[in-house]
Amino acid sequence: MLPPALLRVSAHLEGERVVPHYFGARDEPWLRALLAECARFVGRTMAEWRERVREPQIVRAPKAKLQVMLSVLEPLCRERPEAVVPPKEGRAALFRAASNSAGAPRAAVLSSVAASFGVRAVDLEAAIFADLPMEQRVAALPDALSPARLAAEANLAIASSLVRRAKQVRVIVHGDARALVRHARRAGLICRESRLEHAPRGVVLELSGPLALFHHGQVYAQALASLIPRLANCEHFELTATCALGRDGVLSSFLLRSGDPIASARGPAPSEARLQRKFERDFPRVAPGWKLIFEPEAVAVGDAVQFPDFELVPASAPDQRWRLEIVGFWTPDYLQEKLRRLQAAGIERFVLCIDHRGGCAEGERPVDPRIVPYKTRIDPRAVLAVIR
Amino acid sequence: MRLLFDHGTLVLVDAPNLHVARVPGLRWDPRVALFRAPAWRYAQVCAALHHALPPLPPLRDEVRPSALAEPAAWNPLELRPYQRAALLSWELSGRAGTLVLPTGSGKTRVAIAALCAAGVRALCLVPTRALLEQWCTTLRAAYRGEVGCLGDGRHDLQAITVATFESAYRLMPRIGAHFDLLIVDEAHHFGTGLRDEALEMAIAPQRLGLTATPASEPAASRLAELIGPVVHHLEIADLAGRWLSNFDLLTVQLGLTPAERAKHDEDQKLFSTYRRRQRDCDPEAPWQDFVSAAAQSPEGRAALSAWRRNRHLLQFTEAKAAAVGTLLARHRDSKVIVFTADNEAAYRIAREHLVMPITCDISRAERQAALSAFRAGQLRALVSARVLNEGIDVPDADVAIIVSGTQGEREHMQRVGRLLRPMPGKRALIYHLATRATAELRRAIERRHALAPARTAAR
Question: Which of A368, B83, B156, B167 could form a disulfide with B151 if both were Cys (CB 3.0 to 4.6 A apart)?
Answer without folding.
Answer: B167
